[in-house]
Amino acid sequence: MGETRIQLCGPLAARIAGTRIDDRIPGRQGRLLLAYLVLGRRSLATRDELVDVLWGEAPPDASDAALSALLSKLRRIVTLEGRSEVRAVLEPDAWVDVEAAAEAVHRAESCVAREDWAVAWGPARVAQHITERVFLPGESGLWVSSRRRALEALRIRSLELAGLAAARIGGGELATAERTANRLVELAPLRESGTRLLMDVHAARGNRAEALLAYEELRLRLRDELGVGPSAETVEAHRLLLG
To answer: Long-range contacts for 46-55 (Cβ within 8 Å, ≥24 apart)?
Structure first.
């Protein structure tokens, strides 16, 4: 049987059992419905649930008939089980980019836990590459927004893991760690991990003043935005720089 690969971040691309189906997906709603069924394929979805995914709080009068027509078109390109409750059926080894990103972060975290920095870097970068693309671009709705928030959290975590691994590898990878740290600070300025990583990189290069400046910028952001100071972990990193 051919390979099944589905990309939902960025332009939707799908190969089912070795056959490209991109141009056979029935329009915007077909793409949305396919994505929902693929990601939720380990459980059955009710028709009401699918109507809500497609039309939210303003379904058309004939929404059930419209859903039936859409499901009928999808059945021509992907295996769907059930009528009143529906689920997509893919090969056990099917690759879906959203799932691959979560799995890659998990592998990277396991490697970091045992300080296997060289191995951690790869899966962290895989997750970063996937999550940098927008999930179902052009779509909206509560389900889409929820998925995007979850993927943004994975993106931040993948940056933390990739940056930490690069910093611990050292040498030429310090430049990678610095770029990653700056990206973290840009995306999540109140999240202290980016600044701590930047402090580590500057300190490793002997630029203690720049490390102290990064800390001070974080301290001021936290004070001005939240009225709090840095965490104990960040304060300890600062103390070590001073010491």
So the answer is: 46/84, 46/85, 47/84, 47/85, 47/86, 50/86, 53/141, 53/143, 54/29
Residues 179-234: tens digit of each pLDDT:
999 999 999 999 999 999 999 999 999 999 999 999 999 999 999 999 999 999 99
Q: State both tokens at 201.
A: 């990189």
Residue 94 identity (one-letter amino acid) = A
How many Cα atoms occupy the beta-carbon half-sphere of 211 within 13 Å?
20
Phi, psi of 79 (to 5 degrees): -75, 125
Q: pTM of the full predicted structure?
A: 0.91
Which residue in 155, 157, 162, 191 sits closest to 179, CA to CA?
A: 162
What single letter denotes the amino acid at residue 52?
A: D
